[in-house]
Amino acid sequence: MPFRLTGTSITRLFVRKQDVDTIRFLDPQNVECSRLPPHCSQRDALEILNLHFKYASPLKELARADDQWELRWDVVLGLASSRITMAEMIAWTGMRHAYVERLMDDHCCYQIDRLGWNRQSATEALRRSGF
Fold first, then answer.
1. 126 vs 120: CA distance, rounded Å
2. Chain-centre distance of CA 118, in angstroms?
3. Mean pLDDT across the stretch 12-34?
4. Are 81 and 24 in contact (CB under 8 A)?
């Protein structure tokens, strides 16, 4: 799968839009040659979920992380598949926060918790709006 790394240190991994589903449906515990630890770090979970560090505490509560901030992969991937964050919707649409929020409200798609919106409902609203 083609990808590129950017920045002075590796801070972002860019993947083509058409390859996103391939990544999303990978089970990291069952990928051959995977060297992933049994748990996901807080930082990795925040990156996977497109969340700013200020959401670390709500993530810890929702994911029932231990005091070492280790989260189970299935919980993190479950959150990623069930929720979409404002950052992801902004990247998807190229629009500002206020526009995306109004668009969600117009489609009666409301934030389900501090982490984000129901992924299925929000993506349907985005598609109905031409994105």
1. 10
2. 12
3. 72
4. yes
Helix, strand, coil percentages for the chain (3-state, nearest 5) = 50, 15, 35
pLDDT at 51 over 60: yes
Using alpha carbons only, give the angle 82, 16, 101 rounded to the nearest 5 degrees.
Answer: 45
Domain ranges of the chain: 38-131
Cα separation, 24 vs 109, in Å, equals 22
CA angle 116–126–81, rounded 5-degree value: 45
Partners of residue 118 on adjacent β-strands? 83
Q: Would you put residue 102 in left (φ > 0), alpha (ψ -120 to 50) or beta?
A: alpha
119 or 28: which leads in pLDDT: 119
Per residue in 66-89, pLDDT tens? 777 788 888 888 999 999 999 999
